[in-house]
Amino acid sequence: MSRCAAMAVFFFLFSASSPLVARQRNADSVQRMIDEGKRLFREKRYEQALSLFQVALERSKEPRPAVVYVIGRCQEELGRLEEAVASYESFLSMKAPRGAKAKARTAIEKLKKELAASARGVIELRVKPEGARISVDGRFVGRSPCAPIPVEPGVHEVAVEADGHVRAVERVEVSRGGRREMVVALGRELSPEPERPPEIRPTSGAEPPAAVEPPTPQVESASAAADLGLWTWVSLGTGGALVVAASIAYGLGEADHRKILDAEGYGSGGVVDMTQQEAEALEQSGDRKKLAGYVLWGVGGAALAAAVVLFVLDAGDEPADRVRFGASPAPGGGALVIGGRF
């Protein structure tokens, strides 16, 4: 009887303690998963950490606000913003320290702003010419080149205009979080044609008025007049210098010839104080110098004549009224005569 009673007591105690043992084992397993998840989170292995935290939360028999909060952190780091907001809001419904709840509220506000911003689309514009005015839905947004323009999802009217160019308007559709690129090159405005004066037709029996030609404008060229004056003085100076040089050359040639005539005994039949070779050399030298004098006289005379012509042209009257050319006989040849009034 005593053995049966002992066995009954043993089975009673075993059956009463087994749920406690199982619960303790489950709690230990959950805690190990949480600790492993924290290690993975510190190593920035957010996907593996999130899986462990979610399993631990599912197996836990009691609420664990700290696990819910760190699940939100993992979802935030993974870019799953909407899920993170839901986790943070679930955390706020649990019993938790005020400081932790304040951090959760701050994270919720930040994530909601990011979600709102990510829902907007963007229009990127490349416009020619630079400085063109850009408007979206009638609202001025800037001048080209400009930064990407954030817009709400939907259809928008984009207008681009610049002075002297044709205004461009285009409707574009932007999806949620989408990006639309536009290239706009404005064309030049065509200048309006000038208005023609009304045509006057004569009435019957009347003669049409004679066409009056507009006077031809007379443009005096100051530079041309200055050039004429310059060349006049150049020709005059050159001609004078050549005439002087011609006179000197002729005089030197005449001096050589006179040396022969002035030689002692020349023409008297006596002994001449000069050899035949010296006389011939002086004669040839004198001939060459006189010939050079004749040439220089001719060129100098032509230069002086050109100076006279340029002077007359510079005076502004017709050359035919002011200058006269002629030829006249002269002893041993002829002469060129230039006459005029000044």
List the keywords.
single chain, 342 residues, alpha+beta, Serine Threonine Protein Phosphatase 5, Tetratricopeptide repeat, Immunoglobulin-like, four-stranded antiparallel β-sheet, three-stranded mixed β-sheet, 17% strand
Tell me about this structure.
Helices cover 54% and strands 17% of the residues. The protein has 342 residues and is of the alpha+beta class. The protein folds into three domains: 19-115, Alpha Horseshoe (Serine Threonine Protein Phosphatase 5, Tetratricopeptide repeat); 120-185, Sandwich (Immunoglobulin-like); 223-340. Helix 2 (46-59) packs antiparallel against helix 3 (65-77). The chain is elongated and about 190 Å long. The protein starts with a helix and ends with a strand. The relative contact order is 0.05. Mean pLDDT is 75; it is low at 12-17 and 217-222.
Order of strands, main sheet, comes to 3-2-5-6
Secondary structural class: alpha+beta
Averaged pLDDT: 75
Radius of gyration from CA coordinates: 60 Å
Q: Helicity level, as a percent range?
A: 40-55%
Largest sheet: 4 strands, antiparallel
SS strand fraction: 15-25%
